[in-house]
Amino acid sequence: MATQFVDRVVLQVVAGNGGHGVASVHREKFKPLGGPDGGNGGRGGDVVLEVDPQSTTLLDYHRSPHRKATNGKPGAGDERNGADGDDLVLPVPEGTVVKDGSGEIVADLVGAGTRFVIAQGGRGGLGNKALASARRIAPGFALLGEPGDELDVVLELKTLADVALIGFPSAGKSSLVSVMSAAKPKIADYPFTTLVPNLGVVTAGSERYTIADVPGLIPGASQGKGLGLEFLRHVERCSVLVHVIDCATLEPGRDPMTDLDVIEHELSEYVPDASLGGKPLSERTRIVVLNKADVPDARELAEMVRPDLEAKGLEVHIVSAVAHQGLKELSFALAGHVATARAEVEVATPARIVLRPKAVDDSGFEVRREHTSDGDIFRVVGERPTRWIRQTDFANDEAVGYLADRLNRLGVEDALFKAGAVAGSTVLIGPVDNAVVFDWEPTMATGAELLGARGTDLRLDEQHRPTRAERRDEFHSRKDGQREARESLQAEREAGIWTERPPVEVDED
Questions:
Q1: 20 to 30 Å CA-CA from 123: which of 48, 271, 330, 457?
Q2: Annotated binding residues for GTP, as ranges?
Q3: Which NCBIfam families does the record associate with it (predicted)?
Q4: Class of 365-460 per CATH?
Q5: Closest CA to 56 of 162, 184, 157, 202
């Protein structure tokens, strides 16, 4: 049967998109052109990782690696804003490390309830009500919602334990955990019985610490042989490493000194994340436990090699997990080492918040001139121009004009002049893989400006409504003008001013 423990997954997360704003005009009886009343779009939902004490594995994300938050709702007329998208909260075990696609550590999730936003939802677009101003009385456009973040992250589970039991398969690590704590790992008399790290809590006097057994290591584990590479990451946070050596093994070429040297070599070859485990594995406190001392030959062998191990500066304990021999002394010795390691850890002081305002001359963007086979192009790089591009509906001329105004106020046009751009130059704004291409025309007017100043509506300037008598007088005045025009034409015709044109002769030759 396949193991139900997964400690590394590649997770694809997609945050929700922001809802679009809406362009709407208030309509009510006897109140034509009541003004803009389009609401804003809702914010897209975030993707949040949260430490859950009840979660022990990443199996759910191994089976379903694609997770997406909900989108924000679009706005509506009558100043109704769209609803925000729901955040997607993903529970993860304590000790989960989050890495980006390049392998850099993004977050180390420790402590129940710790939350980290791994993907932010997109902003909702503004409706034309929010875009209205004294200069822009009746905007005929709205802003689009921004797309949410989309990325792949790596989740790695690294067990939070004070003591790690390491050694060859069937050395008795799981048995020690079962008798020293309340944990009940699977125990059998064949190699690689343990397929997942088992965690137990041990109380020795006033000290309380956690102990974990790491699945059996074999030569070449640091290079991925066997199960070693999969589970060596679980000792990165442990402050005390315990070598559990089987003194009753009958395998040829195996003895306590050889087993110790092999495991020490694998520890020295494995390179942990320096930001997680502190000291390298080879520099941490190490204790040797000679197990299965209830077997007479094993007890004799343990007593024989004990002086050689102590000569190397190692603390040695002879125990029997089956007969419960030497366990109390081992438990208190481990508690002492754990207490010492905890005392050496510096007390984390709350991070001081430092505000670093941007310089007054920081434009927030830059113009790069790039040489291509088709000629020079000019790329505008910056957070705000890129965001404005995503928010613009290019099917609306007024929205494009609004974008041009924003870019001009930001100083993009002046920067393009300084970079050497001329009318007709190719300008790219936006992400490198999905930029919007413009043929730059600094003085070009968009369609909305042909009808008047941008942001104005001539219909709103006319406040007077003609009365019935005024409309009747206008009708009679128009009819009188038509009658006078007909009489004038008739008088000119009778005076011979209008005559028929003579036929045109066509030369058939």
A1: 457
A2: 167-174, 192-196, 213-216, 291-294, 320-322
A3: Obg_CgtA, Obg_CgtA_exten, PRK12296.1, PRK12297.1, PRK12299.1
A4: alpha beta
A5: 157
C-alpha 118: how far from its chain's center?
A: 4
Amino acid at 446: T
Give the whole-angstrom CA distance, residue 165 versus residue 212.
6
Residue 145 is given by DSSP the state P
Find the helix or strand (DSSP H, E) in which 201 lies.
strand 198-204
Contacting residues for 286 by C-beta, under 8 A, at least 6 apart: 240, 241, 242, 243, 314
- The answer to whether the beta carbons of residues 236 and 273 sit under 8 Å apart is yes
What's the predicted TM-score (pTM) here?
0.68
- SS3 of 43-98: CCCCEEEEECCCCCCCHHHHHCCEEECCCCCCCECCCECCCCCCCEEEEECCCEEE
Which residues participate in the annotated binding site?
Answer: 167-174, 192-196, 213-216, 291-294, 320-322
d(CA 217, CA 140): 69
Q: Quote the distance between the C-alpha of residue 95 and its chain's center.
A: 19
- 1-157 CATH, one of 3.40.250.10, 1.10.8.280, 2.70.210.12, 1.10.390.10: 2.70.210.12
Give the residue ranges of the annotated binding site for Mg(2+). 174, 194
Alpha-carbon separation of residue 311 from 5, 282, 315 (angstroms): 40, 18, 10
Rounded Cα distance between 125 and 365, Å, is: 22
pLDDT tens, residue order, the chain (509 aa): 344 557 788 999 999 999 999 999 888 877 766 789 999 999 999 999 999 988 877 888 988 999 999 999 999 988 899 999 999 999 998 888 898 888 888 888 888 888 999 999 999 999 999 998 888 888 889 999 999 999 999 998 877 778 888 888 777 778 888 888 765 655 444 444 445 667 778 888 888 888 888 775 655 544 545 444 556 677 777 888 888 888 887 777 778 888 888 888 777 777 666 555 556 777 788 899 998 888 888 888 888 989 988 898 889 999 888 888 888 898 999 999 888 888 876 554 555 556 666 665 556 788 888 888 888 889 988 888 989 999 999 888 888 888 888 888 888 888 888 888 888 888 898 877 778 888 887 754 444 444 455 545 555 555 567 788 888 888 888 888 888 888 888 887 787 775 555 555 555 54
Domain ranges for the chain, please list them.
1-157, 163-344, 365-460
Tell me the H-state helices in 194-295: 228-231, 256-269, 274-277
